[in-house]
Specification:
Length: about 475
């Protein structure tokens, strides 16, 4: 059976949602098997490992995906660089585990980090294959590998938790998941691909990867600085409310964007030899982004109280006005949601780095000033950060691809009818339910059902391009 690109993307998105579902269920079970102290020990140790992962993933996979003239030598060199960086970081983690444990004053972290450091020694043997599969848009294969590995990791975590391994059960699960990915990727590796080490042409490849990696590090640094400023100037309790508010705002990323993040760069890279086609693919992605983002953030803005109370309970009511402020950023978010992928696919990661430097410097300055006022001012500062990022992305998109304000506004106009048809039914349902339904969970479920039905109707009546994609995915079209 021939797998079309559209079907492969469907498999990828489905696999992502299934993975998230299984992870959610396993988290609920492990929360009952492990004590808060055990979870805290793992979180502390994993935070160090995650920081090392940020340096390990230095944009080398993105290089493989976007490279227009990829050959065996470039693949081997990328693998070698990945191997050197991963093994170096893995070695540092292994031998510094005792010092890290001493810093946290928890002896168990030493064993935890040494176990997790094993991942760094095996990851390079799978990442190159996964990047090649994504480049060839074999998303159904990467989805199957990811889902299988996740299930095996969850099974090992749960089994070892039941046998009394404590927080180490999470480390065993992580090792199992990574090992499974590597073994499965070996099976799907193209037979003509050699991973014999070489450093031929390493300078150009490392330069590309370092630019992408630096951008990711800057993003993480700015996020950490934001949290540190809030904690230092406003207190830990205020940081807790902010984290809950921003986490609610970020649900859009977790629910929608994360499911297609691994698909976008390969799709853009497919057209990176033709500026016009790449421009068209990008605007198409922006058009689809609007029909998801605007209804989501408008719904969240109108029903913030219901959302917060259903997800977290009444003890987090202080986060409600913060979420409403952050939702204002949702107006601009879809216009530059995939801008990073656009410039990376075109082989211009330097533009992405410039945008991240400009916007994150503005973010730190604005948040620093806002902390003298209060938490609502901090959220307004973050809206300002998104505005700065929008302006920077729009400037470079226009400069490189000729995407002007009118081009950017057209997708937004196409999303208006689906937005209206999404929200109006919820207003009607909400008015009818007032005083009749006491359960907030039932109330919220009916609001979401009304929004979903209205959204589908809006897509159909407006003859939106995404509705045609739904029909095509159902078997009425091919790519």
């Amino acid at each position: 059976m021939t797998i079309t690109t559209r079907t492969a993307i469907g498999f990828s998105i489905t696999g992502r949602y299934l993975t998230l579902s299984f992870q959610f269920v396993s988290t609920m079970i492990l929360a009952r098997l492990l004590t808060p102290e055990e979870i805290g020990i793992f979180s502390a140790g994993f935070a160090i490992v995650a920081l090392a992962q940020l340096f390990r993933d230095f944009g080398l996979n993105q290089y493989i995906i976007q490279e227009k003239e990829l050959n065996e030598t470039k693949i081997r060199t990328t693998f070698t660089l990945n191997l050197l960086m991963s093994w170096t970081l893995g070695t540092l983690l292994f031998f510094s585990a005792g010092l890290i444990a001493g810093f946290f004053q928890e002896a168990g972290i030493e064993t935890l980090i040494r176990i997790l450091s094993f991942n760094f020694f095996i990851i390079p043997f799978g990442t190159i294959t996964l990047a090649l599969l994504r480049k060839k848009m074999r998303f159904h294969i990467t989805a199957a590998i990811g889902l299988t590995a996740t299930l095996l990791g969850i099974c090992v975590s749960l089994a070892t938790a039941y046998t009394g391994s404590g927080y180490l059960c999470l480390a065993y699960g992580a090792i199992t998941e990574t090992s499974s990915i590597v073994l499965l990727s070996v099976f799907f590796r193209p037979r003509d691909v050699s991973l014999t080490p070489t450093l031929e042409g390493a300078k150009n490849i490392f330069r590309f990867g370092s630019i992408v990696g630096a951008g990711n590090i800057i993003n993480q640094f700015a996020t950490s600085i934001t949290d540190a400023l809030i904690a230092r100037m406003l207190g830990l309790a205020q940081l807790g409310y902010f984290s809950r508010a921003f986490g609610t705002f970020s649900l859009f990323d977790h629910i929608f964007v994360s499911s297609i993040r691994g698909v976008i760069l390969p799709l853009f890279s497919r057209d990176n030899t033709h500026t016009g086609k790449l421009r068209e693919s990008y605007l198409k992605a922006v058009t689809y982004s609007y029909v998801f983002a605007w209804p989501f953030f408008t719904f969240l803005f109108l029903y913030t109280e219901e959302t917060i109370r259903v997800l977290y309970g009444t003890q987090w009511d202080a986060a409600i006005p913060l979420v409403k402020i952050l939702c204002l950023a949702g107006v601009l978010l879809p216009s530059f949601l995939f801008a990073d992928n656009l410039f990376i696919a075109y082989g211009r990661p330097g533009i992405t780095l410039k945008i991240k430097v400009i916007s994150n410097i503005a973010k730190i300055i604005m948040v620093g000033g806002a902390c003298f006022v209060g938490l609502k001012a901090v959220c307004l500062a973050l809206v300002g950060f998104f505005i700065v990022r929008f302006i920077a992305c729009q400037f470079y998109a226009n400069q490189v691809f000729g995407i002007g304000v009118k081009d950017a506004a057209k997708p937004a106009l196409q999303g208006l009818m689906p937005l209206i048809f999404t929200i109006v039914p919820t207003l009607v349902v909400n008015s009818v339910m007032q005083g009749h339904i006491e359960s907030i969970y039932v109330h919220f479920a009916l609001l979401m059902a009304a929004a979903f039905v209205g959204w589908i109707v809006g897509l159909k009546l407006s003859n939106h391009a995404f509705y045609n994609e739904i029909n095509s995915f159902a078997g009425k079209g091919r790519i």
